[in-house]
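Input/output pair, single chain:
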Amino acid sequence: MWIPTENEKYGVVLASFRGTVQHGLPLEIGDTVQLLEKCEGWYRGFVLKNPNAKGIFPCSYIYLKNAHIKNKGQFETVIPMEDSVITEMTSTLRDWGAMWKRLYVKNEGDLFHRLWHVMNEILDLRRQVLVGHLTNDRMRDVKHHITARLDWGNEQLCLDLVPRREFSMVDPDEISVTELFKLMEHRHRKKETPVPASTHHLFVHMKSLMSFSLGEELEVFFHIYDSRENRPLSERFFVRLNKNGVPKSPEKTERQCTLFVDLGSSDLRKDVYIVVHIIRIGRMGAGEKKNLCSVQYRRPFGCAVVSIADLLTADSKDDHLLKVYACNTESEWHQIHESIIRKISSRYNLAGSNTGLAVSLQLLHGDIEQLRREYMVLFTRGVSITKKLGFSDIIMPGDMRNDLYITLEKGEFEKGGKSVARNVEITVYVLDIDGQVMKSYVAAGSGEPGGDEYHSFVLYHNNSPRWAEQIKLPIPVDMFRGSHVRFEFRHCSTKDKGEKKLFGYSFVPLMQEDGRTLPDGTHELIIHKCEENANLQDSARYLKLPFSKANLPGNNQAVKGVKESFWITSFLCSTKLTQNGDMLDLLKWRAHPERINDSLSKLKEIDGSEIVKFLQDTLDTLFGILDESSQRYGLKVFDCLVHIINLLQDSKFQHFKPVMDTYIESHFAGALSYRDLIKVLKWYVDRIIDAEHQDHIQQVLKASEYIFKYIVQSRRLFALATGGQNEEEFRCCVHELFMSIRFFLSQENKGTSPVTQTQAVFLRTFPAVYGELLKIFTVKEVAGFVKETLGSLPATAHAECPLEAVKLQCMAKTVESQLYVNPDSRCTLLPVVLRLLQAHMQEQRDLVMCAHILTSMLSLIRKDDSVTTEPAVSEEVDLIVESLLGLLLQTILEITNRPQPAGTNMRLQFQDVTGEFVACLLALLRQMTDKHYQQLLQAFTSKDDLRDFLLQIFTVFRILIRPEMFPKDWTVMRLVTNNVIITTVLYLSDALRKNFLNEKFDYKVWDSYFYLSVIFINQPCLQLESFSPSKRKKILEKYGDMRVMMGCEIFSMWQNLGEHKLNFIPAMIGPFLEVTLVPQPDLRNVMIPIFHDMMDWEQRRSGNFKQVEAKLIDKLDSLMSEGKGDETYRELFNSIIPLFGPYPSLLKKIERETWRESGISLIATVTRLMERLLDYRDCMKLGEVDGKKIGCTVSLLNFYKTELNKEEMYIRYIHKLYDLHLKAQNYTEASYTLLLYDELLEWSERPLREFLNYPMQSEWQRKEYLHLTIVQNFDRGKCWENGIILCRELADQYDSYYDYRNLSKMRMMEASLYDKIMDQQRLEPEFFRVGFYGKKFPFFLRNKEFVCRGHDYERLEAFQQRMLNEFPHAIAMQHVNQPDQTIYQAEAQYLQIYAVSPIPESQDVLQRDGVPDNIKSFYKVNHIWRFRYDRPFHKGTKDKENEFKSLWVERTTLTLVQSLPGISRWFEVDKRELVEVSPLENAIEVIENKNLQLRTLITQCQSRQMQNINPLTMCLNGVIDAAVNGGLARYQEAFFVKDYVMNHPEDGEKIGRLRELMFEQAHILEYGLAVHEKFVPQDMKPLHKKLVDQFHVMKSSLGIQEFPAYVRASPVHFNGSPRNSCRNSVPNILSLDGARVVARRSPLTYPSVNRYSSSSLSSQASNEVSNITGQSESSDEVFNMQPSPSTSSLSSNHSASPNVTSSAPSSARGSPQLQDKHKHSRENSCLSPRERPVSAIFPTPLDPAQVKAPYQNSRYQFKKASPNQIGDTILPRSDPNLSAPDKVRPTFSSWSLDSVKEVNNTQFSDTVGKFLSPPVPPRPPYSGSSAKSIRSQSPGPMSRSPQKSSMPPFTPSPTECQSAGLVSNSPVLSGSYSSGISSLSRCSVSEASGTEATAGDHPAHLAATMPNSVSSGSDELIRRENKTPPPYSVYERTNPRRPVPLPHSLSIPPNADPPALPPKPHQIRTSSMKLDQASDSRRADGVPHVPRPRPLPRKVSQL
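Output:
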């Protein structure tokens, strides 16, 4: 039975549990669980991170922990009873764990590893805390480390700042908001700016001396030297080095490492140096030979210097190699370091080229205790401490130090009867009072222990040596008295014995008789002469002698006159001894009472450090004197006491305050002193107003804190001693004293008067007195004193008065004092404080201080106090609200609206003040209860006041919500802020409803309210979805979802508005829409009905809701681009539709129906827009530019244009798409895109406003700029033909304005584009069909198929890989069949990709012979609408002997919605057509293709277009070889046998056609061999002979003896010149009289490569292909029919036979040397359609007479053929069975196939050698014909000219606009006319213009847009009649498939007859290039040329 658990409530999972049992709950190790019930070894409960999933699990898997239970029962929560730091660590590490893995995925390796180490470190520290064996101090340290690391990790991972107090997290509800703000700010500051340390220490590690010439031991001395004052700052650090230059005792690190301690910040200057002196120990001369002498001398070696400033910049741990310099002359040694510093190079030089001192130097910052903690290793390993000379900047009371430093300065010695100067060495001893040498008290420096004696270094032959050697004598204080120092002087001989002879000595006693020590300074000592054997052991004998020349009595001239002297400098650093006699006199006042007055007067002159040494003794002395003779010395003692108290205010001595406090508490015994102190203090205060000099009085008032301490302690001692006598008298004295103080404070003075300054001094110290008074008086009494004292200050102060600021500081200290904390005193003091604050805040003065005071006040009012509803607290809140709430709001508004000051410090200060005021406001609002709000709102007397207050508070709340209000990681603070805001708003919304509705309605207040609510809901810190689960859970538990609360409030307020709702439509649509985009279901459900309501009200008001719709759509776009909204939102929006039903009473039935209909349509539109916007947003999140982004933008752009008619949005997205294309380097697509905008503009002078990046300019200028940009991009995209069209249009404009300069440039640009067409190589792209199947694709791709233009050099495999990279989750389909519904509906992504072949539209250029490949290549792959894909298959039984019998081809033709290239690299497939090609048709097509290829190669060879003949050779070889080995024979077997003819009577014509083609092939081969013989090189003659032999075999195998008559009848000219072919009067084989049309089922006009992915063929398929091509295995000619992919289009392993080319032969395309490679390998490996010129292969039979006419009379005289004839014969038949491309009219070819003999020799050689450059794009001829004359002719014959085509693409008829009016059914676009965007309807096509024009009678503009070789059939026109998407390509205007009138950008506006301009000389021009393009051929027709009036030119300024 399950029993609820009592104590077992919380546990941790020890091992993972799968939960496989019934009701089992899966658990992971480390999960925390809450236990609900227990039953026989099982628990039931849930994991805390997912409380909704409950289940059972075994007890043995759970480790129980103690926990505290809140809300026992159903909703109980469990809080573990463990240290809060542990709880925080656990939850934080869990959060980090998930983020840490994400770092790995994001490849942020550095942070990943650092975080890993920190996490491990925290886990180790956590174990230490949990074990619980740590001492309290260690526990503090560990917790400090843990929190520091937690904060570091949180900062690195951009998590929230955690407010802490004493290491544990703070609950924001437990403390006031002001305290929370202080904590956050403190932690933020700590994080931001470490406080600069005031103390610094230099760590020195001596490593080695590097020199080649050592061999002697060395001593190295380091010290810090101030070059500005020329004195050492520290004692010396001393290291001994051995003969190798390394430290002598390497194991003792303290002997090679030191810390120079207590450097002040002022010591880190450029002119402070580390100076190193090096002394060698050895022979006198460095280079002396080694003699027997064993005596060693200390001799100078070298010096090195480094500036401390260098260490500040260098990397702190760098090793330094210091250069060592030696002295040029030894006598300069004492100042060598100065010479080096000053760079006096004449005095020193390098000690050796490679001599260097290796040392490690590092500056450390902070006090020494901090260093001990941070650098433990340093101190445990051992480091000597090198002290500063003198005390540090701050003297600590406990410091003990007693060091005497003596510097051996210089000596003056006589020669001593020698001819050379002496070598003097000094030996120093310290002797005690008994004359015994003190052991180990002479130290050369720190680092080495002290010795018994010290030997100076020796200067060679120098009678005036200068040493400047410093030694340290650390003699204990008790041994100082009677001690002396003796200096012995010896001459060091350099002779063999090397002896040292004593010749004199000096001495100096350390303490004088009166107890003073040897004064600091330089002393000239007397040298007493003596012999070597003189007995100096008995010091008493010489101590009686004088020691210093300064101390000699005046009569002892004899000694004074002696020349020999020795100078030393002494410096004492002692905390116990003094050199000051006045100090000693004062301390011994009882011995000399007569000196008391002097001593007291001199006390002020004594150095402070001397006073603090003897602080207690001095104070005892003063109070002793006061007790004994207060009358006489009272005032003086008081002054001395003031001096000492003020001395302790100095930063150097401030640490002695505790010493004085201890003295007052424990040692002070002056029980009677209080009377004298009060009396003297009152005496001073009374004299303030009259005194001239206030300085002394100010000093007295400064010391008032301690004076009161002495007064109070003295009184307490007196009361203890006497049992509280004289209490009244004492109180009286104090009251009188305060009366005097109040009187002096109440004086009004000018701001700068001395009395005002004195008042300020008193106010500064006054708050410190409160605590002392509280020791004797009650709280209320003291509060009374304070209130009266502060209340006595003059009220009317001037703003500039310095007293004002001091008053505030005094208030601040009062509020922070112990006195204010007590509620009793608080109610007394609060009004005083509030009055002052009010005055300052009203004038916006001293805001920083005001903020501090407010913060302190409100920190005391805790939230729980108000819960207990203490009346006192409630009153306080009332008082503050009444006085300061309005002011607070006003102040915050003013501060935040002020411009930010420039200085960073000022800015920080501003930020702080704002933050503090905000915290105060929040704290105050949080304390307010219902009662307070009621009182507040009732206090407003008028509606206007209330309105202003509401507006003000709403504005302030909006400011508080701003992201920049608090640093980004202050989430805790933001949540508290939001909680306060929503609570307040709920209170205030009531007031809004009551006071500002119905007739009192106030739009501004309501608007402000709604605006605030929307901003509140949208702020980032409330978007819980973006938080981690644990953080979300915490927030929801503490505050709930505040967005939903606010949403409900908005809804209820909206419902209250009634008819006033109309005021907020459409203004609030955007903001409310923003709210609904928040992904919170409850919030959305609350908000979305508001839209229904808005539509309803708008419908009532205006009968529609256009406004609502427009606003919705605009806002959606901007919001989605910011990343808001999601899929569920779209579905939710859809759910508004049913909402229109449930209100039958809303409107009458009909109204409701219409309203419902339009409502549903709006929602549908919005939903579709959202689909696109969501896709767009998701695509834009990805990194690089890819097809997905572009496709998505195209989809959105079309939607804005066609469905929404939003012109401005449309243009914005055009530019977004343009930028994407540029980024992806799709320059052609970028041009087409920009052309969309260009087409919306006209060549007019209309002014356009500034828009996007365009300046304010005229429409003409913008269009010109766009034209130039588009041309430039077409140029970069190598789409030069399109650029030429635009160049012409621009040139025409310049021409009409006589702008010849630009016209010239434009013509040059046009010329350069022609050159590029002819000279530069262009790669022909591959095309790929891509199907996107499955629901997981974005909306614009889902279940659609597209054709994509590949990149340069991109083959199928590369394209497949690119697509799979773009869609990493997609699955590649391995077949090419259309997928079924299961794939369409699958929750996945399927990609189906295969290559397709383009079907060019521009047959005219391609079918024309002699047009260079450079030109043809453009038309093969540009302006392509249709693509083809072939799949071979066998139908019926397969004949193994001859597979051609059953080999069918399934041909799929895909028609796109746009032609490629266009505004995208891919377009959707609009229509697919499937046709099966029979085996016979297949055979016809194969042979046709091969014939065509042969003819092309022969032509190229003849016209010398081919560099070598190899391609022709290989092609001939391939065809003849295949034919001989059975290729054509297989066709004969298959189709010419009787069985086939009998079974397929309908194929009779086709069989005939196949036979003709075979004969034709033989004829072409025969001619080809003749040409080949002419050009074949000598070494290939054998091959040629073999080919000729094989050809004869082939002919005989085909049974050809003679060619049929129709073949023989035609003479042949194999050249590419259309002119020559025209002159031929005999029709050739392909001319119209000789050819018969064979109706075929094949849908293709133009033979094309049938693509086959090499990877998709099985080996069986390979064989089939071999059979199709009719090749033997050995053939190296690959036949051109490549069956397309059938099975595995995506696999990339090539399994096909070598005879099959892949979908794009890599050698055939993309090679840079196109001329060679292309010609050779293309021809060799079966040309794909775009590589071959396409001639008309199935000509229509014509009457020979009809054809002859144009050729016999004139090339241009088409008019003789009647229009009807031409229409019937030339135009394609309107055969419903044929699709448009089948209906190809014939081309007059230059071919006539006949035997070579019949050709006139001269003509042959003439024509073979000719090479004509064809005119493409065709040059526009001039025309003046009217629309009628054009209409009378069909476009077919007009393009008949072999030389020039009459109508090039792009150019409409000049009368287009008149003849075919623009009938528009497109909706007019919204948007102002002057927006720079003309109406889109110009680009729309009317149905009339699309359908009425028939093939026989096209309107002029259609005629103009027809391509030259193809006229659209009626079925095509019908297919496109209603499809009018925007024309996305330049070429589309010329496209017969889309009869779209040209936009104005490329057409001529109707004639408006402006005033005519004088014609130009020589020629009358027209203003549009369109007239050029039709004129030449028409002039020949005799139609008169009508000039068009020219528009007036612009002014020069406009040009």
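The chain has a mean pLDDT of 75. Residues 1766 and 1837 are 7 Å apart (CA to CA).
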